[in-house]
Every structure is written in C-alpha cells, then in structure tokens.
Amino acid sequence: MTSKTSKNSNTFAKNGKHPPNVRQVALQILVRIDRDDAYLDRLLTHMGVSFKEEDNALMTELCYGVLRHRLLLDYYISKAGERAIAKFDPIVLQALRLGVYQLYYLDRLPDYACVAETVEAVKKNQRRYAAGLVNAILRRCADTSKRPALPALDLSSLESQSLHSACPVWLIEKLQQKLSALKTKTDQTIDLFQNCYAIAQAWQQRASPTLRVWTHRHTREQVLKSLHDLGIEARPTTYSKAGIILKKSGHIGHLPGFLTTFFMQDEAAQRVIMLAAQEQGPTLDVCAAPGGKTMALIDLGHTPITAVELHPQRLQLIADNLKLAKQEQTVTLIQEDATKSGFIKGTYQTVVIDAPCTGSGTFKRHPELKWKLKPQDILRMQAIQIQILDTCAPLVALGGALIYIVCSFFDEEGAAQVQAFLQRHHYFTLEDTIDTFTEMDCMDGFYGVRLRRHA
Question: How many structural domains does the chain have?
C-alpha cells in the first residue's frame, strides 16, 4: 500500500475511531464514480484504506458487480421500493445497489449480514435517516416470497435485452447495427438478436487477467511452467502466441517476474499490435500510455522507438514500467500533444497510433463505462482521432506503415474512420485489418489496421 494508505489508517487509530468497513468504502467508491466521473480501477487503488487481502477482494467484487449489473439492480430496487429510481437519494441508491447485489449474486454471504452491513454503511455515509428505508427494501428483496420477479426475456425487444443484460438501450442498438453491417458485409448467417444478447451478456462477466510474455527473454511454455509451479492456474491464449490467461484475479504485480518476464495485456491488444510484427524502426508510438504496446513493440524488435504521450503523469507511468522491465534505455519518451501539427519532426518507418477512444470494447474490464458513455461521446472521440491521424500521416516514411488502433466496437471510430482517412490521404492504402468484435465474449473489442504509404 502507498504511504497515503498507511497515513489514513493511522489517523483512524489516533482518533480512536474504527476504520471504515468494506461496504462503507465500496459505497464511497460507487458514489464518486457517478458524482466525480471517476474510474473504478483508480479508486480501488487510491481510496487510502488498508484492508486484509480477503476484504480487498470483497470490495473489488462488490464494486465491479454493482457496475456490471446496475440496470438489473435498479429494476429490483424500484419494484421493492415502489418508487422510480430517480426519486432515491444518490448515496441511498448506491447503498441499495450494494445490498441487492450481495443478496442476489453472492451466495456465500448470509442475507442478514448483507442487510445489516449495508444499513451500517448507509449510517456511516451520513444517511442515518435512510437506514429504515434501506433495511425495509433489502429485507423485502431477501424474502423469496416478496422478491420482485424479472419479466421474461424477449430477444426482439431492445428494452427487454437491455434489462436482462444490464446494458443501456442505446448500446444494445449500436450492437445490433454493428452485427447487421457485419452480416451484410460477410454474407454470413447471423442471428442478430441472439448474438447481440450474447455479447451484452458477456459484458456482465469478469474479464480474465491476461499476460504477455517477453518472448525475446523466455518462451511461453517456460513461463506457464513457472506459474504452475507456484500453484497458479494458467493456460495459453488461443490467438496470441505470447499470451497467458490466468484463472483468478489478484495482485498480478506481486507475481515473480512481473514486468521482467511478462506484463499485463489483453489478448485483443496482443493481436492488433501484431500488425507491426513485420515492420521495423525507427518507430513512433503515439498516445503511448500506459506502455503495454510500447513494450510489445520492443519485444517485436522495433528500434529505435520514440513514445509520445500528452499527460505527464501517464508519461511517467511508461517510464516507471520500462525501468521495472529493464528497458528504459530502449525508448525515448516525449511529452507532446499529437493533435497539434508539427508536434514532432522527421519521418518514421512505422507509426503506431493507439488512439484515444470511447473504450467501448473494454466494458468487461471497465463496467463503469457502460453508464458514463453517451452517444455524443462517439463524435467527440472521432474528432480527436481525425486530428491525430492527420498530423501523423506526414510522419510516415515512404513505404512505411501506419498502424491505427482503437479499443472500441463503434464503426465511427474504426472502419468508417479509416475509410474517411483514406479519402483524405490518397497516398495510403489499406493492407490488413484485425477486428475482435466477434470474439468479445472471450477478449476485449479492438479494431486495428495497417496502412501503407506509397507516395
């Protein structure tokens, strides 16, 4: 834990107060995600309260679980509370979501403990007046004879799919549009409704922690054996020859060999960076943080590499990761805004743009995005991507490659964005495409292309 964590824990002790319990902190995290537009993984790391490992695991499970199933939880709460969700105080609503999630999805916790601990968390978060209401609604949900029933699934209804998969209606609609376009393009027999529901259901599942092996240092078989020797269940990825999937989450950073032998990278990200496998340096890595693709480029033999990142804290994160990986001498780090023309001089044989995007391909890892994203965010990110693509196009050397990547399934950020780029820049041609949309049940949704400059 950080020094901040220790300081906060000691403060409670000096003041003679008991430190917050797991549900109290989980409630604070969920409130901040909505109120402050914060991100779950960062809050879990920096909330500053020290817990035992099993308590940290429970807090993580509670927060991720509530965000994955939020729409379903709200349905149960509105029925049991006999009022619209909008009429609940935000803190009280988050507490109810926590309580109902525990009652319906965590069988190992006794109902009375779920109710009592959640009521206590409400009191400690300055909502003592609502304790009776929370207690009554949770007890109603815990009573199987009074538990609200879920209406039958109707795959032809957007609203029904939305409710059963706990996914906003507009995202279900975008999924159907994507599948419909894929069906037309590939002339495949695709059950539009069933496939849409299957993907939305997959977003409710926990993403498997996935590693990428430093293949110029170790073979994947060697790393798998070392993990098995430590009692860690792991298996090779299906598509990437460098990937390993772990059965359980946990403190991956505490594993022997983290960053020196392997690093975290989803299989979809491992697949799209292979678009640069046959290319060479000098290489420009644009929007490089947190550095996973930078390290993958090193492993693929790219040299020299210049990594550009706008935000100083994220640039420092790349530097820290490279140092721990013992690769700090292989990359030149530059803080610049890639949307600005002339942000860097010269040309590069390979330019990789891991563009800012909506992140819609990462809902399993970042379930809060389902509730943060709005349709207008697609156009906002699309405009930024256009700026970066246009400033980077002249930086590609004659005969060189431009690799464009987004972790999004929206065509506006993927295929449509690339087609518009080719219309503006006729001296590029499309060579290869990787789209993991159809495999989003087992990996993230990434879109990547390799474009070749011929004039």
Answer: 3
Residue-wise pLDDT for 69-79, tens only, equals 999 999 999 99
Q: Judge if 306 and 431 occupy the same domain.
A: yes
* Assigned domain for 73 exists: yes
49 has a pLDDT exceeding 70: no
The distance in angstroms from the start CA to the end CA of the chain is 53
Element (DSSP H or E) covering residue 235:
strand 234-236
41 with 70, same domain? yes
Torsion 371-372-376-382 (CA) sign: negative
Residue 165 sits in the same domain as residue 119: no
Burial per residue of 348-361, b for 16 or more beta-carbon CB atoms within 10 angstroms, e otherwise: bbbbbbbbbbbbbb
The CATH code of the domain that includes 35 is 1.10.940.10
Residue 83 token pair: 């009022």
Contacts for 64 with CB less than 8 Å, ≥ 6 apart = 40, 206, 367
Identify the DSSP state of 77.
H
Write the pLDDT tens digit of every residue in 205-219: 988 899 999 999 999
Please say whether the beta carbons of 66 and 367 come within 8 A: no
- Residue 291: domain span: 271-453
Question: Is position 315 within any domain?
Answer: yes
Whether 222 is in a domain gets the answer: no
Whether residues 100 and 72 share a domain: the answer is: yes
Instruction: Return the pLDDT at 15.
Output: 39
* pLDDT classification of 370: cutoffs 50, 70, 90: very high
Q: Which two tokens stand for residue 268?
A: 């979809």
* Mean pLDDT estimate for the chain: 90
Return the CATH number at 394: 3.40.50.150
Q: pLDDT tens across 276-311, in order?
A: 999 999 999 999 999 999 999 999 999 999 999 999
Contacts of 358 (CB under 8 A, 6+ apart): 369, 373, 377, 378, 381, 408, 410, 413
